[in-house]
């Protein structure tokens, strides 16, 4: 009997998160679209149709994440997509540290908070897929991007979180990976060439890796990158 898996996507009311939800729904998963604005998540889920549901979830709010975990219940796949880019055009010596702090609150701590809420149950049940949306701007091998320093270092930290959680869940049936979707045409980067639908394929591939698949990797489609 084929098991229908359930995927939770953060920041899924629009852009890349919504595209990932649509892609996973098309692959036969149930999808839970979450967003800080619950009504926006509900509207997006209604547009996707049967198999899609919604829940309010603010990754920066511990109580909101707790309520979501209680209301949604166990999930098989977590796509940590919610993120912000607040310091474009800045530099490391002049960037507002308030912007850096706000960036880390979403991109790193928000991802970590949601993982703590949902991943332990995956480990207990012996199966799970966790995908963090990262960026080439946070890769040491590629070179951190100094023109958005807070964003770039937050993604470096997300890569570190990926490696730690992959090590912690090793041999548990849970696979944890980061995906570099490249510049994607969303509200965050309206001039980018790659569409959200194209990038969603890479993310969905990582979210549906077969048993025994790679964990603790930084990837784009079938290609893996050095950290």
Automatic annotation (TrEMBL):
<dbReference type="InterPro" id="IPR036291">
    <property type="entry name" value="NAD(P)-bd_dom_sf"/>
</dbReference>
<dbReference type="GO" id="GO:0016491">
    <property type="term" value="F:oxidoreductase activity"/>
</dbReference>
<feature type="region of interest" description="Disordered">
    <location>
        <begin position="207"/>
        <end position="227"/>
    </location>
</feature>
<protein>
    <submittedName>
        <fullName>SDR family NAD(P)-dependent oxidoreductase</fullName>
        <ecNumber>1.-.-.-</ecNumber>
    </submittedName>
</protein>
<dbReference type="Pfam" id="PF00106">
    <property type="entry name" value="adh_short"/>
</dbReference>
<comment type="similarity">
    <text>Belongs to the short-chain dehydrogenases/reductases (SDR) family.</text>
</comment>
<keyword id="KW-0560">Oxidoreductase</keyword>
<dbReference type="InterPro" id="IPR002347">
    <property type="entry name" value="SDR_fam"/>
</dbReference>
